[in-house]
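Action item from last week, closing it out:
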Amino acid sequence: MSDDPVFMPMVREKRKWKKSKTPNPNQLTLDLFSEKKPGPEVNPTLELDTKLGTYDFTLLKPRQYGHRTYQKKALLFALENKNAIIQLGTGTGKTEVEFRLAAEALKRGKVMLVADTHLLCKQHYDTAFGSEGFNLTEKEIVLAVGDNRTKRMDPSFYANARFVIGTSEAIMQDIIHDRVSMWEFSLVVLDEVHHALGADDYMHVVHLAIAHNVPRVGFSASPAENKQKLIELMDNMQAQHLFSGDQKEVEKYVGYAPHIKMWVPLEAKRVETLKIYSDMIRDLVRRMLLQAKDAELQGLIDNYADVIGEFHIPKMKELNRGMQIINQAKKNYDNRYDEYSEAYYAALSLHAAIFKACYHYMTLERIGTEEFKEFAAKLEKDSTNAAKMLRGEPRYQLCLTRAKDLDDHPKVTYLLNLLSKHLDDQAIIFVETKSHALRLAARLSKTAFSAKAILGKSEMSEKKQLLVRKEFEEGKFQVLVATSVANEGLHMPAIKLGINYSAPYSHIAMQQRIGRVRDAQGRIYTLIGQDTSDVILYRTSQARKKSLNKVYAEWAEH
C-alpha cells in the first residue's frame, strides 16, 4: 500500500438543519397553486471554469491537455485569497498552477518564483520556455542564481525582465544591491514553501514581500513537520488560508508507486560493537549532567532527562537543543574563575564529545563501516578537547579495533539485490553524506551498474550538478546516488526505482523523496536497520504524516 501523502478535501460550507416551523395556512395555499420550476443543476466543473474565465492567462502557450479539477480548485483558491499556502503532492502538477498564477499577475508587474536550489530553478526556467511555458522572450524570463552573477549585474537584466526565477539567496543579493526592487513585483511564488522558517533566505524574501504588500503564494507537498511548525509558517507568510487537494480527485490523474519498507538485520559483531559504543556515550552523558548540576545548568539537565531515564542515543533535536542551552549560558561564565565556571566548561567539552560520538555511532549503525573508519581518521587529526576526550576512552579504541574486522553495512547487499531486479530501470538512491554518495557510486560503477553521485552546492558546482542531471536524463548512466540536493521538486520521469538507503530525519524529506518516483509501475524502498534509529525515524515520519493530514483538514475547514 502506498505511503504517499494523503490530500485532504477542499473547504465546504457546513449546513445546519433547523426544525421546521408550523406552516402559515395562507402561505401554504399560495404555494399549492404556484407553478414551481426546478432550478438548473449546477455543474461544479463548469462553475470552476466560469470563475477562472474571468481571469487572463493569455501569456501562457496553448496547453495540449486540459487542466485537472484539483489544479483548477487550487488556482482559484490562490487567486481569490491572494496570500495562501497550497499543499499538493509531488507529481500533481504544482508547476502548472504556479505558472498560471504568474501569467495572471504579469499584467500588473514582475513576478518572482523562488526555489531552493539552482537545479530546481533551472528546471522551472527550462519549462517556462517549453511547450507548457509562456509567450515571453528570453529577456523577459530570467534566471537569478549564483552562477550568473555577472549577468545579474548588467542593468538590462532586470530592466527587461518580467518573470524572475531564482534562489532566495541570489534574489536577496540583487535587492540589497539595488539591482531590482520589491516594489516592481505583483506576486511572489514560493516553491517548497516549507523553507520559509527560521533564518533562511526564504524568510527575508517573505518579509520584504509583506513590507511591500506584495501577494505571496507558497507551494509544498508537505509544508511543515508538525502543527506548531505549520502555524509558524502560516504566521510567517501572514497567510490565513490553506488549500489541500482531494485525494480522490488526485488519484484520477496521478498513479503513485508503492512505498515498501525493507527490514535489514545487522550482523552480531556490529550489534556488539554498537552496544560498547552506546555504553560509552551513556557514561559521557552522565558525566556531563554531573558537571551541569555543579554549574547549575538546569536547562541542560532537563533536556537530557528522557535520554538518561531509559537510555537511548541522543536524537539530533536533543543534541541541537543542548548545544543551544550551553551557548546561551556562556555569557554567565565568561571571565569567571570559580567552581561554577570550571564545571560549565567541563560540561561544554563533554557535550561536544557526545555530539561527535553520536554522529560516529550513527555512521556505524546506519551508513557503513568505511564511513565509521573515515570519521575516526578525522578525529585523529582533531585537536579539540572533545576529540582528545574520545580518543582517550578505552571503549572508543576497542570499537575502532573491532570495526577493522567488519564488512560493509548489510544494507549494501540488500541494495545490490534490489538493483539487480531492476536492470532495465533507472534508479535514484538517497544517502545522507557526501562521502557515502561518492563511495557508493564508485562501488556500484565497479559492478554491473553505472552510477554517478550528485551533491549539494557546497560540494559540487552548480554547473557540475546540471551536467550530472542532464547525463542521467539522457540515460548515460543507470543509478543516481544523491544527497538531499535531489530531495525536492526535481522532475526526472525516467526513474522507476527509488531507494532510501536510510530513513531520513524529517517527514518532509521522506515525502519529497517518495515523490521522485512518479510511475505507478515503479517501486520505492526504504531500508530499515532492525533495532536501529531507522525504525524510530520511519515510524515517526508515518505518524507525522497522519497527524498532519488532520491538521491540514482543520486549517482547510477554517
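Closing note: The first helix runs from residue 25 to 33.
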